Amino acid sequence: MKNPLQRVSDYFSLGPLDDMHGHRVKLALEIGSLALMVVGAVWVVFLIYSGAWSIAWVDGLLVVLGAVTLVLTRKSRIRSAAFLLLSSLFAMILGMSLFLDVPTTSAPRAVHQYFLLLAFYGYLLLKNELKWLRYGFFLSCMAAFVVFSSTYFGFASQYVVIDDVRVLGAWGNSLIATSLLCLILYIIQSDFVLRTQAGNELTIALLDHQFELYYQPQVDQTGKVFGAEALIRWHHPERGLVSPAEFIPVAEKMGLMVPIGHWVLNASCHQLALWASKKASAHLTLAVNVSAQQFHEAEFVPKVLALVKHKGVDATRLKLELTESVLVENVEEVIMKMTLLKQAGVGVALDDFGTGYSSLSYLKRLPLDQLKIDQSFVRDILTDYHDAAIARTIIALGRDLGLRVVAEGVETEAQQQFLLENGCYAFQGYWFSHPLPISKFDLFISK
Ligand code: C2E
Ligand code: MG
Ligand code: MG
Q1: Which pTM was predicted?
Q2: Angle between helices 78-95 and 113-125 (to 10 degrees)
Q3: DSSP 43-90
Q4: Gap from CA of 266 to ligand 1 centroid (Å)
Q5: What is the distance, to the nearest Å, from the Cα of residue 194 to the centroid of all Cα atoms in its chain?
Q6: What is the DSSP letter of 222?
Q7: Which of 231, 256, 260 to mutate for ligand 1's pocket (most ligand atoms within 8 Å of CB)?
Q8: CA distance 108 to 170
Q9: What are the tens digits of pLDDT across the range 399-432?
């Protein structure tokens, strides 16, 4: 059994949550294929024994289908296996309900119960597919189940199974379908619990004051601290300090970035107000990261402006850092929101610049103040010709567009020197300071 810490760490990184889903889908496919082979084989034997030769081959098809999907699953061709299994099963259950398992007054229909199982099975396997496919498949199975449960509809043909066999079949199929349904529901439920648990822990963190802001100094060419970036930290009761890189993607997925982001903005404005009241820190600006989900929220701009007003801070001291991911959807709305912020004096920076989707034509239309060169370009700026070229281009672009360019992830004096020589005059990185809790940050600027 996994230790509790490992379990918690599983919840909180996006990878494992999705890996776990992938793992479950694989498991569900393996169980499904094996169940199909076993059930098919049992029926083949039973039908041959009962003399129903003419229909035993249909159940033989189930065995073949199970074997093929098992091989595909083992070869990690999960999507192909899922599509093959779901579509063939739907067709086969439909065919059996119409032509083989036609109900009479003495023996009910039973094979249609597999539609119920197939509905939930498809719901699980099609989780990452388009909504219309996932829900469409679910609803089609449910509709088929309702129709066959409520009617005697079917075609009399040479293939209709005799009542004696079907009475036994009704027991067998009902038992198998209900047991497998329980298994599927258990898998779906554990997937849900895992996600809710991660969401619950983050909600508790918010209510229980487990978040804290760290501040990383931003320095100009003379070595003077002109501002800081606020970086959230989570004091997890069991795991200690958790990095935002780990929990923010999960919070985004749970839709929790809006309340968490609001907490960050509130704490940041509070800090700006405190700094403004002291001479040594009154000049500082504070950069706050804003996630795409938070920025796209309808009330985002009014909320920010209300906070600034409520805390009585100078709006020009607040800089919002957006990543290029906000530009993926609805650029016109983004431009409108940025313009409103700018009119109120709030600055906007494009974070991790060069790693995302910015198009240069948008760039000139965005009312930005700052570009931040992503640390991945700064890291090898002295050794990698391409990284150096990209950094130089970003600096030139910023200069031409009248934007301040801040280099992130500066770890050595040589990196700073290179950037300086190429016209970048604002820096942030371990070379100057790691992100610090507020008491240490205040000490840092007082030196
Ligand atoms: P970011 O905004 O690009 O922040 C810079 C990250 O680089 C920080 O990681 C910082 O600790 C790290 N860093 C700073 N200097 C150096 C250096 O010299 N070398 C290296 N290797 N790393 C350096 P952190 O604090 O783990 O934050 C990671 C990301 O999480 C941030 O990247 C930001 O995108 C996000 N984030 C942090 N706080 C918040 C928040 O309050 N709201 C939102 N939406 N996102 C946040
Ligand atoms: Mg940032
Ligand atoms: Mg960054």
Answers
A1: 0.70
A2: 160
A3: HHHHHHHTT-HHHHHHHHHHHHHHHHHHHHHHTT-HHHHHHHHHHHHH
A4: 19
A5: 14
A6: T
A7: 231
A8: 7
A9: 999 999 999 999 999 999 999 999 999 999 999 9
